[in-house]
Amino acid sequence: MLNIVLFGPPGAGKGTQAEKIKKHYNLMHLSTGDIFRKNIKGSTDLGLLAKSYMDKGDLVPDEITIKMLESEVNKHSSSSGFIFDGFPRTKDQAIALDEFLSSNGTEVTKMIALNVPEKELIKRLIDRGKDSGRADDQDENIIANRIQVYEKNTAILAGFYKQQNKLAEVDGLGSVEVITSRIYSAIDN
Ligand code: AMP
User: Is 134 among the catalytic positions?
Assistant: First the structure.
């Protein structure tokens, strides 16, 4: 199985690139943000709960997020691999991912970290907010909080995968196509 963790701050381009990677390598794309948004649309209990955190740009608690992702992985265990987009975002999530992949007889193959300077992230998120309809992309305070939460809780995960020799850093500036080809080279290497 090929299991890719696509990593980077909000606005780094994870969703756009995940769509390309999933087709190219025939992977199951799991985006925790998309799954939460689907639940919000469907007014499920999970959606209601997630919304209260997402509206502020805070992380949905680990216990809820991990359970939700684990059930998605188990649902698709016959796929040829996964691309994880927006997960893990905390050390406990990363440890849980290792555990439940290992109980499925597999592991994270590589973490692809997209590097984009903060100024560019804010610009991209505000641009995206104009047509995405996402409330968390339309308010500069929420955007700032999401970037802060990333720095505080999530950025350390690059070190977690580096220790396992699985980190590949990719320049996230340039055209979508150029970045995609950088990612393919990093995965194939
Ligand atoms: P995203 O679509 O990845 O930008 O995520 C949007 C929001 O969903 C985040 O700001 C969090 O509130 C929530 N979220 C997504 N993934 C996670 C995760 N792995 N852990 C906790 N919260 C998450």
Answer: yes
Q: Which of 176, 59, 165 has the alpha carbon at shortest distance from 114?
A: 176
Query: Is the Cβ–Cβ distance between 126 and 119 less than 8 Å?
Result: no
Chain segment 55-108, per-residue pLDDT in tens: 999 999 999 999 999 999 999 989 999 999 999 999 999 999 999 999 889 999
Q: Which two tokens stand for residue 95?
A: 């440890």
Residues having CB within 6 Å of any atom of ligand 1: 10, 32-33, 36, 53-54, 57-60, 65, 86-87, 89, 93, 136, 146
The CA 130 to ligand 1 mean position distance, Å, reads 19
Q: Per-residue pLDDT averaged across 161-177, rounded? A: 97
**Taking the CB of residue 154, how many other CB atoms lie within 10 A of it?**
21
The Cα 43–Cα 37 span in angstroms is 10
37 annotated active-site: no
pLDDT in tens, 115-166: 999 999 999 999 999 988 888 999 999 999 999 999 999 999 999 999 999 9
Active site residue 128: yes
One of 14, 110, 124, 182 is an active-site residue; which one?
A: 14
Catalytic residue among 37, 110, 124, 146: 146
Identify how many contiguous H helices and E strands the chain contains and give both numbers.
9, 5
